[in-house]
Structures are given as structure tokens and as C-alpha cells.
Known about the structure:
The protein is an alpha/beta fold. It has 20 helices and 27 strands. It folds into three domains: about 10-310, polyphosphate kinase like (2-Layer Sandwich); about 325-490, 2-Layer Sandwich (Endonuclease, Chain A), CATH 3.30.870.10; about 500-680, Endonuclease, Chain A, CATH 3.30.870.10.
Amino acid sequence: MSQQVYMNRELSWLKFNERVLEEAENKKVPLCERLTFASIYQSNLDEFFRVRVGSLIDQMLLGGKMRDNKTKMTAKEQIQAVLHQVTKLNRRKDAVYETIMGQLEEQGVRMVDFRKISKKESEYLERYFLREIAPVISPTIVGKRQPFPFLKNNEIYAVVVLQTKSGKEKLGIIPCSNTGFKRLVELPTAGTYMLVEELILHYIPKVFERYNIKAKSLIRVTRNADIDADALYDEDLDYRDFMTELIKRRKKLAPVRLELTREMDGEIVDILCDYLELDSDHVFQVQSPLDLSFVFEIQDTLRKVPELFYEKRIPQRSAQFKEDESIFPQLKEKDKLLSYPYESMKPFLNFLREAANDKDVISIKMTLYRVAKHSKIVEYLIDAAENGKEVLVLVELKARFDEENNIEWSRRLEDAGCRVIYGLDGYKVHSKLCLVTRKSEGQVEYYTQIGTGNYNEKTARLYTDLSLMTANVEIGVEAAKVFQALSMEETVDNVEHLLVAPRCLQNRILSMIDEEISYAKEGKEAYIGLKMNSLTDKKIIDKLIEASQAGVKIDMVIRGICCLIPGVKGKTENIQVRSIVGRFLEHSRIYIFGTQEREKIYIASADFMTRNTLRRVEVAAPIYDKDLKMQLEEMFITMLSDNQKARQEDSHGNYEIVAVQETPLNSQEFFYDQAYMNAQKM
């Protein structure tokens, strides 16, 4: 039997989250940062269950005959494999959490439960509970007159088995998430804390005084979030009102996971599963807290101990821009490329602010997918509209879990006089595209910005992204064509310079891979380099396998899901895959086709996932400037040379930390050092 060259998408994602967990386990990572990685592992897993496991459950409900198009696994088989792997990973998460918290005690911070406190601390907590907590909690006893309550997604509840004097058993439930009290309870002993849910669980007998307490636990329910907005949309509805209603419905969807912090009798678990209509296989017992978001409060108490954190880094001035000069002539002189978070987003913000106030600017057009809660970008667009510019903004209301924020911004933009559109029927608009049109001395000028990441000032300090700014007329004309199509609720079907999904990206990528295959078959050197978040598109995967078999050398830096297994003899032996998981979230996308003398280089908003290549509006921009090409080549080579935060995928789909053979190289820290040096030279 030939060796498998495909990896299941869900299992590949779990391997990515395992790499996140490895950073929590990594003793070379500062202690408080390890705690952050443990929290990221947990929040990642929460979303995975809501979206991906929820989607698989929906597939099972539709008959269960659908199979993964690469590994041919049914939804049921995928769920079983996922649950098995998650159980193993959660044990590691519990162990590393306990280890980290034990080491934090040496720094004067104690997270305690009632097994670890003194009599004096116990008396203080009892008084605190009776004074601060008991008056505001809302207990429920499930019975004939009181049905089982709706348990909100990812919120924590104390559940207790109550026994009456007659021997009957009932369930008592208390919500532990309440704005009326703090989650992190500070004890009088300096640096000592307890989670409020542990406090409530301990004193639950004081709430249900008339009953005998048989068993108790903290629980958390995760609910399906995978609503298909387009399938539910009614054309007669206002789209923004429809999305508002959709968010409400999402909060009430069926449970996909139940977590408990205490071991409970199987019969009780079965009763909970029966109430929740959840299979018992989806129940997990965990030792660490059900929600680790509180760790950031713990970290704040330790900020004065610098060795517990990464070295402070600040985005630097880009050497490509002169701060005291207008942006427009600088772009006419030469294309510019910003690299976040190493370089500051300020030149792009200055570009927008200048455009908003420049009397010669006619219009600003922009796509918004995720923006900051306090967004200067949106403020500048509002300023532009109020200054009489034509402002067209496409706000993607289907940006999962950011819908409420986007709905609010869309209202503000409309109120200011911007023309706001909401994407296309059946397609998300995920492109990062901004076009400023200016008329100077009777000539129309186009200034285009195309990025790999969102227009979000906060994530620009946390994610690695690229931002091209150019006055290239041909690119500007094609960007205008994209906006015109979006305004007409259409998609672009013909472009020469840009790659624009859903109709002009996948086919062009396949064509460029074919071109490299042709070179290889002629005995010439052929090369493909790809940097992205995920690779799942089977058409592209199969074409990459064909290229490998033809002798094309392929290097890929893929942070997350990779459904192609490299290094398989006779199939993918010319492909290497690396994943970088480090301090900053790798988010930039780079496509390289061809050897240096004939190479084509693009930066893009699109991963090679079918949802991106065929079901979204995405834009990739060619890099024509020789200096910028060289800059991207050097970045890519540096990432391939990372031997600190890179893992290499082997021919069985497993990831191993790259062995340090020469000088240690952490690519992210290298890029920051480079940015600091460049800024100092200015």
C-alpha cells in the first residue's frame, strides 16, 4: 500500500494547536508568556469545537455519507479521531498549567483552592462569599415546575446533585459568570487569588441548605457556531438586520462539548447529556480552569519582573518613508512595502489621513473585514466623507465573531455619508484593498494599497503581515475594476496584474505551477515558494504533487493546517513544509514562482483553501520593484532558516522542532532586530 500524501484538515489543525501547546511547555519561553500560550491553546480549541466540530456534527445529521475529499474519512470518523486527540492534548494542557502555576508561586503569585489555604483565609472567603457573591447569584433547581435552564456558550456554571429528605435527587445550577462580581478574588495574603467559580462551588451547600449535597462540579458548554449565513439569508430582509438576528441565533445553537472539573457519577453525566442532547463522547473532564482568560490579570501583577516576559518590542519607523513629506509623491517615486509588526502601520495611517484632507483626492474605496474597536482607519474614512470625498466602504458583516463590531462601524460610516456595501451573495469579501483616486493638474492618479492582513491597528502589532503601497497605474485601474464589480454585486472575471478570487486566482496559480512543471520537464531549474496560514485546496495540492514528481523544488512555510504530507518518496519528495509558531502570529502570505532570474512574487490576502480560492473575494498583488522583490526573497529564506520556532513536517505528517546545526536563528526576533537597525540608520 502506497504511503498517504494527504492529511485530514481537522487533524492537521489539531497538530497546529499542539505546536501552540509546545510553546507553553517550552522552558526557553519566559514563564508568563508560556501562560499566554496555554490560554491561546484553550481559546483556539473553543473556536475549533464551535466551528469545525459543529460543522462535522451538522454533516452527520444530514446523513453522514459525506466524506473528506482527501482522506475519505466520514464526519463520524473525523469526530472520533478529533475527540481522541483532544483528550490526549488536554492532559498535556492540564499538566503544563499546573507546572507554570507552581513556578509562579516562586514569583509570589498563588492561585489557590480550599485545599491550599489557611483557616484565616478560609474565614475571609466565607465572609466574602456571604457579603459579595450570595446576594447576586441566581440558583435554579431543575424540576417539574422549573425546566433545565439554557446554558450559555462557554460560560461557567456550578452544578450540584441535591438529595431531598425523602431520598429523591434533583439538579441545582448556579451561573458563575456575572458582571456583578469579579472572577479573580484577591485574598488578604499578598499575591494570593482564587477563581470565583471555585468559591461558589465550595459554598454551594450554603445556597441549597435544605438539601444533602451528593456531588458537585463546575461545567462549561460549548455550542455550535457554524451557521451558514448565505443559506439562511432572505433577500427581503435588510442585510444588517439579518446579521444581527443571525448572531442571536448563534448563541442558542446546539451543544458540541461539555467540560467538567470534577469526576461525577456516570448516571449524572448521562442526565446532563440527556438535557443537553449531547453524546457522552463529547464530555471532557479537565483539571485546569475551564477558562484561562484570567491569566492576563495575573500577568499584570508581574509586569515589574521583565525576565518573565518577552523583551519589549515596538514597531519601528520604516526606512522607506520620509515622515516629514507627503505620502503621494513618495509613492509616485517608488513602490513601498511595510512589514508588520516589525515596522509601524503609521505610514499607511498617514496615507489615509492625508487622503481624507487632500483637496485633490476625489475618492477613497476600501474593503473592511476586521477592524479595531477604536479604529483610526474608520475615523479617517468618516473625515473624508465629511470633507466631501466620495467614500465607498465594503464592510464584511460575515467576519466570524466580529459581526457585532462591524455592524456598529457600518452604522457610523453610513451616518457620516459614506456609501457602505455588504459584500456579495454567496461570497465573503476577505481582500485587503484600498484605492485612493486623485486628480492633479488634470491627470487622474491611482494610489493603491494591498495587504495580507486586516486594517486593524491592534493586530498590526501582534500579527506578521505585509502591506504594499503603489502608484502603479495598471494596478490602480485593476483595483478600480474590483471595486466597480463589488458595487454591482459581481466578481471580476479578467485581470492581468492582480490575482482576484473567486474567478482569477486559483486558475492563475495552477497555470503558474504548470509553467514550473514545464521548465522541470525540460531539465531546467524550477522553483515554487509559498508562505501562508493554511493549505487545503485539493486542486492546488494535487498540482503541487504533480510538480514535485516533475522535479520542481517546493518550499512551503505554512503556520496552521497543511493537508499535503511532504517527503513521500515518488510523490512529494521535492516538497518541504515548515511551520513557525512563535511570539507573533504568522499571517503574511507570499507566493513565489520561478527561479531568481524569472521569478514572479505576490503578496496576498488568500490562503490556499477552497473557501479562499473559490468562495471569497481575495486579492493578490504582484511585486514589480526589484528592491522589494529582494526584500521578500530574503524574508522567505530567513523563515526557511529558522531553527528556534520552526517545526518541519516529516513524511508521516508529524512535526519536529528543527535541529540547531549552526547559529540559532529566530526569524521573528531577527526581523525585529533588522527593523531597529534600519530605523537607527535614518
